[in-house]
TrEMBL record:
Keyword Cell membrane: no
Source species, domain of life: Bacteria
Position of the signal peptide: none
UniProt keyword list: Dioxygenase, Oxidoreductase
Protein's UniProt name: Glyoxalase/Bleomycin resistance /Dioxygenase superfamily protein
InterPro entries: Glyas_Bleomycin-R_OHBP_Dase, Glyas_Fos-R_dOase_dom, VOC_core
Length: 129
């Protein structure tokens, strides 16, 4: 069900050191590091992300939580996006390939009624010509 989860951290330096240490003893390491966001996991798959709260557009005392739900295929991602819009979600990113994440990453993003960034993702998409 849950593909990956992201939280935002107020003290970026302290949070990086904390998660490096506590996740390290569980066998998880940094899989991706974008400077303002770090993904932890194993075998090249980041499952848990931390983000620098001071980076980007902070809205209120805490930026949104990011939750990505695993989808069975590209059609399921499209259906998620359409259902979310029909339910009143704010569109963030229409269903599309995100090759900057990895080849085959097909996702769509919406903002839920509480302002959280919610995604559906399928990891086996074929590149479009």
């Amino acid at each position: 069900m849950i593909d990956h989860l992201g939280i935002n951290c107020a003290d970026w330096e302290k949070s990086k050191a904390f998660y490096d240490k506590v996740l390290g003893v569980l066998g998880y390491t940094r899989q991706k590091d974008y400077g303002v966001a770090i993904g932890y996991g194993r075998d090249g798959k980041p499952d848990f992300w931390i983000g620098d709260m001071s980076a980007g557009d902070a809205s209120g005392p805490n930026r949104e939580v990011h939750v990505a739900f695993r989808a069975a295929d590209e059609d399921a991602v499209r259906a998620f996006y359409q259902a979310a819009l029909e339910a009143g979600a704010e569109p963030l990113h229409e269903p599309q390939l995100w090759p900057q994440y990895h080849p085959g990453y097909f996702g769509a993003f919406v903002r839920d009624p509480d302002g959280n960034n919610i995604e559906a993702v399928f990891h086996g998409a074929r590149p479009q010509d």
